[in-house]
TrEMBL record:
Residue ranges annotated for the OLD protein-like TOPRIM domain, each copy included: 445-517
UniProt entry keywords in alphabetical sequence: Endonuclease, Hydrolase, Nuclease
Full protein name: Putative ATP-dependent endonuclease of OLD family
Coiled-coil ranges (or none): none
Keyword Coiled coil: no
InterPro entries found in the cross-reference section: AAA_GajA/Old/RecF-like, Bact_Antivir_Def_Nuclease, P-loop_NTPase, TOPRIM_OLD
Length: 679
């Protein structure tokens, strides 16, 4: 038995969202302001705190109708809703779930629960002012509490195929349920992102969050032991340990009582004589919970030479706090033994460094698997956690523009379908994407824009080029330079085309900086076989760059006339991918020369400076050829003088940053940076 689907309507940015749940762990990811926090908040509102809805929870798109409410308004269209679709099979214990099963058809494998927050039109209209301004202000300040009706229904939509949701089309078929029935069926626990951890000198003088939650943990175990010494939730070592602690404290009470008699003897005798009281005594009564709360602390290091908890880094405090919270939740899940358990963890990465996020992502699955019928929802901004998660578990919250509502996409099933549309290559490209989706590319889930580059040289120099772009476009970038935008840079080699469906899927505008990589068809005299050799642009006939072929829609090379026309447009810069979210930046003719790669493009426009710095630039060979060079065959020159590309790029960067050398940026790169900055 598990929650198979969650549907949300009319809550903040989540106007009409659908989430298909994994049976164990579902990872909710997305950029800022795409509704991750709202999703978590709605679950908690309906499942734990149903009286907390206010005017601001209703989406902006329906507020005009809400503010204009009258007798004719259909308030059901404005209601905030959460629908849980629950899947079960014949092996499940359906004793509690049967209360929500309205059709006993043995072929059924689903039932539905509707949570609804609806405006009480009668009550609201009775007190609404007539003046429009006062009316608006009243609704904004008072809509909530007694003016909202929060109800829970079970419904059966078996065989329902209409576009109108069953719970709107067949209101008379909904069966209202009590909240006590929901609590018996579903145990919901949440660990919030705003955890009470702090690491500072002030923390040492104030609250100790780990000690506080340790106290909470002990108190819970102690109460459970009181309720039932054989309770399974505390059983075994936990319950026995609590009993041993109580026994030890009772013995201490006896010993302290004897000492109190001696210490307070004179005072007690005077009190008895003066007040004529009976057998007045001072006794010891140590309470285990109070002792833990006031006299215990979490430390690290040797007991005789330790450091207090607030000396720990925030990352350690956060993880320890998380683990204790998870342990508390596990205890509650086990003790209540509900048919369905749902644990929501908001942003587990808070305060933790990347390696610890990796560890948490690995370990959380094991913790979750120890609780029967437990499903977990994790909301995260961490590319580290995403890259360590199963693709099948990732759900992406997408909001193409501020004016559009949020949608929730199944990363694996929705995206694999897009790759299948590519035909025979689709499966291989999708497999490549899954293997490549490491920490760097997982950042795309949270980026506003992306830049794809080919290799190490571009990766080393791109930050410098971005800085130069911002300086040259100071009027446009004073407030929001390219360097301050949320951009992910990925080194993908010649495989940018493998990301095309993925980029479309997540809606990230992307600049692809690549090389024209021109070749020429050469027929072997001996074998009669055609080979495509690297060749200067001016004399080329083809390109080996699959990225350019894909995004610029190259025709089949066997269609020689069409391909030749396309290749000419490519060289002239006239081949277009059309208006879209992906822009190609590759070499065009500049200063009378058309480069084939980044290196010869850079050397061609910086020749005088390269000559002047030839003895200090690393990665060069045959330096004497620089002085002898004439003409514009930079393609051959680059091949002759360039040794290790990464050393050359690092040296170019060093001279710019340390010695102030003002290198020129190839125009195709600068034009590309201008595009990604403005779009």
């Amino acid at each position: 038995m598990h929650i198979e689907e969650i549907k949300i309507e009319n809550f903040r940015l989540l106007q009409d969202c659908f989430l298909d749940m994994s049976e164990k762990t579902t990872i909710l990811v997305g950029k800022n302001n795409t509704g991750k926090t709202s999703f978590a908040s709605l679950l908690e509102r309906f499942l734990e705190k149903p009286d907390n809805f206010t005017y601001t929870d209703f989406p902006i798109s329906i507020r005009e109708k809400l503010l204009g409410i009258d007798e004719e308004t259909n308030v059901e269209e404005l209601a905030i809703r959460l629908v849980l679709r629950i899947a079960y099979d014949e092996t499940d214990d359906l004793a509690i779930l049967s209360e929500f099963m309205l059709d006993l058809d043995s072929t059924r494998r689903h039932t539905n629960i509707l949570f609804e927050c609806c405006i009480d039109k009668t009550k609201l209209l009775r007190v609404l002012p007539s003046d429009p301004k006062e009316r608006k202000k009243f609704i904004e300040n008072n809509l909530g509490g007694k003016f909202l009706k929060i109800k829970v229904y079970a419904f059966d939509d078996f065989g329902h195929a209409d576009q109108t949701p069953y719970y709107l089309a067949h209101r008379d078929q909904l069966e209202e349920k009590e909240r006590s029935e929901i609590r018996a069926l579903l145990n919901f626990q949440v660990i919030h992102a705003r955890r009470n951890v702090a690491s500072s000198e002030d923390a040492g003088r104030g609250a100790k969050p780990l000690s506080a939650i340790s106290t909470k943990f002990f108190r819970k175990r102690d109460i459970e032991a009181d309720a039932d010494d054989n309770d399974a939730a505390t059983g075994g070592a936990g319950g026995e340990s609590i009993e041993k602690l109580r026994s030890m404290l009772a013995s201490i009470d006896d010993q302290l009582g004897e000492q109190y008699t001696q210490v307070f003897g004179g005072f007690l005798k005077s009190s008895r004589d003066f007040l004529e009281l009976g057998d007045l005594k001072v006794v010891s009564n140590i309470q285990s919970q109070s002792l833990i709360e006031t006299s215990s602390q979490v430390i690290y290091g040797e007991t005789g030479n330790f450091l207090p908890e607030h000396y720990s880094g925030l990352g350690y405090l956060n993880i320890l706090y998380l683990l204790l919270q998870i342990e508390l939740c596990r205890d509650d899940f086990t003790r209540r033994n509900a048919p369905l358990n749902l644990l929501l963890i908001e942003e587990p990465e808070a305060h933790t460094h990347p390696q610890m996020q990796y560890v948490f992502a690995d370990k959380i699955q094991g913790l979750i698997s120890q609780v029967p019928n437990l499903q977990a929802l994790l909301t995260t901004h961490s590319s580290h956690i995403v890259s360590k998660s199963k693709f099948e578990d990732v759900r992406y919250l997408s909001r193409p523009s501020p004016a559009e509502p949020v949608t929730i996409k199944n990363f694996h099933t929705d995206l694999s379908a897009k790759y299948e549309e590519l035909g025979a290559d689709g499966a291989a490209l999708f497999q490549f994407l899954k293997q490549y989706l490491t920490i760097n590319s997982a950042e795309l889930f949270f980026a506003s824009k992306a830049i794809f580059i080919e290799g190490t040289t571009e990766r080393i120099l791109l930050p410098l080029f971005i800085e130069l772009h911002d300086k040259e476009n100071v009027d446009e970038t004073t407030e929001n330079g390219l360097s301050s935008q949320n951009i992910s840079v990925l080194e993908v080699g010649a495989n940018a085309r493998a990301f095309a469906p993925f980029l479309e899927f997540i809606g990230v505008r992307t600049l692809v900086i690549t090389d024209i990589d021109t070749t020429k068809a050469v027929i072997s005299e001996k074998m009669g076989k055609t080979s495509y050799l690297a060749w200067p642009v001016a004399e080329s006939s083809h390109t080996s760059n699959e990225t350019l072929k894909h995004f610029l829609s190259a025709p089949d090379p066997t269609e020689e006339k069409d391909f030749s026309d396309w290749h000419k447009r490519l060289v002239d810069g006239a081949a277009s991918s059309g208006e879209g979210q992906i822009e190609l930046a590759y070499q065009h003719a500049e200063d009378g020369y058309h480069a084939r790669s980044f290196e010869d493009a850079f050397i061609s426009i910086n020749l005088d400076k390269v000559k002047a710095r030839k003895d200090t630039l690393a990665g060069l060979k045959n330096r004497d050829k620089l002085e002898k060079f004439s003409g514009n065959d930079f393609y051959s020159l680059t091949a002759d003088i360039l040794g290790k590309k990464s050393d050359f790029a690092g040296s170019v960067l060093y001279l710019a940053l340390v010695e102030g050398e003002s290198w020129r940026v190839p125009k195709y790169i600068m034009d590309g940076l201008k595009w990604i900055h403005k779009n």
